[in-house]
């Protein structure tokens, strides 16, 4: 992002996962060092680009920006652009000790923030049966949630579940034989998603973050959000419509005007939705091209939506 926008004066990176932020910090430092060399030493960068990183969720962006410059958070100035990437990184998925992987055995953790107290193990072994079923149904959109709910609670009588491997075996026993390997993997993916969302309170946090970020935008500033599953995308879509209209809204709201976009400089924007407080530049989300999917298969479910403040 810094390389693509040499005019950038301020960059603030935020992530609730300190491990992910540490990796990002190293990349930023390497880029700044490289740029300083190209431009004739570190003195050449003074006053051009300020870069900060914070271990915080985006819902706290007002506090973070206020610490950098009060005018960025109090509405008198604001920022030109905010990008939120909601996807898990490969680092998080590949580390078995984080508990996110269906294929690698590890602890039933699933916390994005290691300082948080709630884990997936807590939910599986102590939450009421109806609550376990609710998150499987609502957060995992799992059709077989009732059978899984009963088996999970029954497992408590023999000591409970304490590793991702034990949970996967329970899922395999619950899935029908006709489903085969792909059947249980898809179910496990949905179950793991449900638990991760519950552990990190992801959906409510996302909605709060979208409102906070929009408040921090300067006039004509843009908020771009990359989501990776339908629950996230639904929240982004609906919240964007509410933000530009000032209240609950949908695509058929009479106060919202839809129009085609014909801009050679930004051909990826096709249709916009205009409201009182701003414009949704992506009536339909932008999805990865075939070339992008070849480079990174994990991006195939990504959806990008962009909103611009009035």
UniProtKB/TrEMBL annotation:
<protein>
    <recommendedName>
        <fullName>Ribosomal RNA small subunit methyltransferase H</fullName>
    </recommendedName>
</protein>
<dbReference type="InterPro" id="IPR002903">
    <property type="entry name" value="RsmH"/>
</dbReference>
<dbReference type="GO" id="GO:0070475">
    <property type="term" value="P:rRNA base methylation"/>
</dbReference>
<dbReference type="GO" id="GO:0071424">
    <property type="term" value="F:rRNA (cytosine-N4-)-methyltransferase activity"/>
</dbReference>
<dbReference type="InterPro" id="IPR023397">
    <property type="entry name" value="SAM-dep_MeTrfase_MraW_recog"/>
</dbReference>
<keyword id="KW-0949">S-adenosyl-L-methionine</keyword>
<keyword id="KW-0808">Transferase</keyword>
<comment type="similarity">
    <text>Belongs to the methyltransferase superfamily. RsmH family.</text>
</comment>
<dbReference type="InterPro" id="IPR029063">
    <property type="entry name" value="SAM-dependent_MTases_sf"/>
</dbReference>
<dbReference type="Pfam" id="PF01795">
    <property type="entry name" value="Methyltransf_5"/>
</dbReference>
<keyword id="KW-0489">Methyltransferase</keyword>
């Amino acid at each position: 992002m810094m390389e693509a926008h040499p005019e950038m004066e301020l960059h603030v990176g935020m992530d609730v996962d300190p491990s992910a932020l540490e990796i990002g910090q190293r990349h930023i430092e390497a880029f700044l060092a490289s740029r300083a060399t190209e431009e004739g030493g570190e003195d050449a960068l003074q006053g051009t680009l300020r870069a900060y990183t914070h271990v915080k969720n985006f819902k706290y962006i007002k506090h973070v920006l206020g610490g950098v410059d009060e005018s960025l958070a109090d509405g008198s100035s604001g920022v030109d652009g905010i990008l939120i990437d909601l996807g898990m990184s490969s680092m998080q998925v590949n580390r078995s000790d984080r508990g996110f992987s269906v294929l690698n055995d590890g602890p039933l953790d699933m916390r994005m923030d290691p300082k948080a107290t709630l884990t997936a193990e807590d939910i599986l072994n102590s939450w009421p049966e109806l609550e376990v079923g609710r998150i499987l149904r609502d957060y995992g959109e799992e059709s077989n949630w009732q059978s899984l709910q009963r088996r999970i609670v029954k497992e408590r009588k023999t000591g409970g579940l304490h590793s991702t491997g034990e949970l996967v075996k329970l899922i395999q026993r619950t899935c029908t034989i006709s489903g085969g390997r792909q059947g249980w993997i898809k179910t496990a993916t949905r179950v793991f998603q449900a638990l991760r969302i519950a552990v990190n309170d992801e959906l409510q946090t996302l909605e709060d973050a979208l409102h906070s970020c929009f408040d921090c935008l300067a006039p004509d500033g843009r908020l771009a959000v990359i989501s990776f599953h339908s629950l996230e995308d639904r929240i982004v879509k609906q919240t964007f419509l509410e933000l530009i209209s000032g209240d609950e809204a949908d695509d058929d709201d009479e106060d919202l005007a839809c129009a085609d976009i014909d801009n050679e400089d930004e051909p990826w924007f096709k249709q916009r939705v205009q409201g009182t407080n701003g414009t949704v530049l992506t009536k339909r989300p932008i999805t990865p091209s075939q070339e992008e999917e070849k480079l990174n298969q994990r991006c195939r479910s990504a959806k990008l939506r962009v909103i611009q403040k009035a």
